[in-house]
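Quick illustration for those who missed Monday's session on complexes.
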Amino acid sequence: MTGGAGLLLIISGPSGVGKTTITHEVQKRVEGAELSVSVTTRPQTAADRVGVHYNFIDEAEFLGMIDRDELLEHAEVFGNRYGTPRKWVEERLASGGVVILEIDVQGAVQVKRAMPGAFGVFILPPSEESLLQRLRDRKREDEATIQRRFREAKREIAAAQAGGVYDEFVVNRDLGEAIERTVELVEQARLARAGGSAG
Ligand code: 5GP
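Prediction with guanosine-5'-monophosphate bound:
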């Protein structure tokens, strides 16, 4: 159970699908929505803001958090560890907030197991070719890295579709429409949790 009156929202999708943009728009448009800040062992990049995108910790600190059961879920992605600190999420949910987790499929499986009331949305590309094109258009990585991310993306999509973890799949054919659709789904989920007929 998620406890309280809050809604725990999981947003996942392969890299390059527009997930981060969609997540930020959902946060802006859904009243009371807040984004959980994960901890990670991956190196900080110039684009990362500490305490906004991530909190950066080392391996020993990460293992300590696992031992003390301070992580709601954790996973290894591209050789780095990522986890969601439990306390903040539970506090926000208890006070009725909408908490957004932008996490991968491995993490989503754990969250759904621990909190079956969580609502999962997976963002899909319109096609595999379009995803490869978007990864290239970002001009962030060399071709070998792009190919690796592409392979990972295909694996992640297959896992998500097999899983029974996600309540909804949103195809990002047009970014504006994908944002509208995701916001609509979240609002519906919130109403359903509030008792369906509650006006
Ligand atoms: P990046 O390093 O590009 O910011 O994130 C890489 C991947 O890790 C993304 O798919 C992202 O959704 C996922 N991720 C980020 N934070 C977490 C987390 O706390 N838990 C899990 N399971 N995955 C995360």
